[in-house]
């Protein structure tokens, strides 16, 4: 069985006869000559294939939007918008990015536990489609902003579900949480919104976990969400307009991870569809999934150039110009309890025997480690390494100001052409 990096390259990218890694028909060796390193490269073709496969798998049950926090570059958002996706945002700046990408304001929803008054003014003034309320203070801020703008704002309640709905690599529900209203206070929160004339309670938002790789876990969470939606609709006495079941769809990052089985997802949907159709208060609702990592992650590579190779007390270190300042997740410092290696590959690999290799960055901290024991061929100064699964939670989820290294460039590749979507240093 091939290692994870080899399998991902075969699935999404290609190597030529000389072992050079290509993305969207372009050699990464040539792209790095033109745009330098470190460098993020995103393949629009992979994004489109991933989006279409998921949309087809959940057809008849849910629509698929894109969670902008995973990769807020407007060019990336634009790809998914062209495929028909709306956008889930978590800040006013992400609202602006989605608009620049061509997403209509009414197709944007705003989630997140700490929405400022300024951001609420920005999005309400801009005609946002829906705001997801997560606490009482926020409820009042949205109502006040709606009053200032003289509009009625469509809102949903984010519910922190009970323990039976938990799942995924990072639990978002079933425990004390800053996110949303606890399930046991849902009815009181519903009544509070209903008492505010400038707010129109349209739906429910559930996000029980993230990085879910098991279809049965996700299907169980979605079924639980439909149950909560039924309770909400009964409380307000009218059909819901939106049921947002969150994202949480995972991708394989580590050895032993198994990709999410879309066929198993599809096989489990008839029961959920029947639940919707049997309830006249749920049947009219738009059911939404809003993944980010699942859609953007596999399309991205982070490229770094080898600066030195050294031996230290029996261990071999490859030192590169890229590191945790651009890709915190790959270093294992973005919420991982156990630090494991993302899939890494040499950009040029002629089939040499691989050995376990530590790959580190240029920062003055032992945390700056892109791999601890990645299977790589012999590398030397000037060679290139690629971190796969880097299209989500990469640059903007990283401490880019640490040690003041310049920002890397970002490229979007499609149809054999590369578009510079962030200039180096910008």
Automatic annotation (TrEMBL):
CDD domains xref list: PLPDE_III_Btrk_like
Name this protein carries in UniProt: Type III PLP-dependent enzyme
Residue ranges constituting the Orn/DAP/Arg decarboxylase 2 C-terminal domain according to the UniProt record: 40-391
Tree of life domain: Bacteria
Presence of the UniProt keyword Lyase in the record: yes
Cofactor: pyridoxal 5'-phosphate
Alphabetically ordered keywords of this record: Decarboxylase, Lyase, Pyridoxal phosphate
Keyword Lyase recorded: yes
Pfam families: Orn_Arg_deC_N, Orn_DAP_Arg_deC
InterPro entries: Ala_racemase/Decarboxylase_C (IPR009006), DAP_deCOOHase_LysA (IPR002986), De-COase2_C (IPR022643), De-COase2_CS (IPR022657), De-COase2_N (IPR022644), Orn/DAP/Arg_de-COase (IPR000183), PLP-binding_barrel (IPR029066)
Orn/DAP/Arg decarboxylase 2 N-terminal domain: residues covered: 46-296
Provenance organism: Methylorubrum zatmanii
Family designation: Belongs to the Orn/Lys/Arg decarboxylase class-II family.
PROSITE patterns, alphabetized: ODR_DC_2_2
């Amino acid at each position: 069985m091939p290692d994870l990096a080899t399998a991902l390259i075969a699935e999404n990218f290609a190597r030529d006869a000389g072992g050079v890694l290509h993305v969207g028909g372009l050699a990464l060796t040539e792209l790095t000559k033109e745009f330098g390193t470190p460098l993020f490269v995103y393949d629009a073709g992979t994004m489109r294939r991933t989006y279409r496969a998921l949309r087809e798998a959940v057809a008849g049950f849910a629509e698929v939007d894109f969670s902008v926090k995973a990769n807020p570059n407007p060019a990336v958002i634009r790809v998914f918008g062209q495929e028909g996706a709306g956008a889930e945002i978590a800040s006013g700046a992400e609202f602006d990015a989605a608009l620049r990408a061509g997403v209509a304001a009414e197709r944007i929803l705003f989630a997140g536990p700490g929405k400022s008054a300024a951001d609420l003014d920005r999005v309400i003034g801009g005609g946002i489609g829906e705001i997801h309320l997560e606490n009482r203070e926020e409820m009042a801020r949205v109502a006040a902003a709606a009053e200032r703008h003289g509009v009625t704002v469509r809102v949903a309640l984010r519910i922190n579900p009970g323990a039976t709905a938990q799942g995924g690599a990072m639990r978002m529900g079933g425990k004390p949480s800053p996110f949303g209203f606890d399930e046991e206070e849902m009815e009181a929160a519903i009544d509070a919104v209903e008492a505010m004339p400038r707010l129109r309670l349209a739906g429910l938002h559930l996000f029980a976990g993230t990085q879910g790789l098991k279809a049965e876990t996700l299907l169980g969470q979605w079924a639980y969400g439909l149950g909560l939606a039924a309770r909400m609709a009964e409380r307000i006495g009218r059909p819901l307009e939106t049921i947002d079941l969150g994202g949480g769809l995972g991708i394989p990052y580590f050895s032993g991870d198994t990709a999410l089985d879309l066929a198993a997802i599809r096989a489990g949907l008839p029961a959920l569809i029947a639940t919707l159709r049997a309830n006249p208060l749920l049947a009219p609702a738009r059911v939404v999934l809003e993944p980010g990592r699942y859609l953007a992650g596999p399309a991205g590579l982070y490229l770094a150039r080898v600066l030195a190779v050294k031996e230290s007390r029996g261990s071999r270190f490859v030192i590169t110009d890229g590191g945790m300042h651009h890709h915190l997740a790959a270093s294992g410092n973005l919420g991982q309890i156990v630090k494991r290696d993302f899939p890494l590959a040499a950009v040029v690999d002629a089939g040499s025997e691989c050995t376990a290799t530590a790959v580190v960055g240029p920062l003055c901290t032992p945390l700056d480690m892109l791999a601890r024991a990645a299977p790589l061929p012999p590398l030397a100064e000037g060679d290139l390494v690629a971190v796969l699964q880097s299209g989500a939670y990469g640059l903007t989820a990283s401490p880019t100001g640490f040690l003041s290294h310049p920002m890397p460039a970002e490229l979007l590749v499609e149809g054999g052409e590369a578009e510079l979507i962030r200039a180096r240093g910008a």
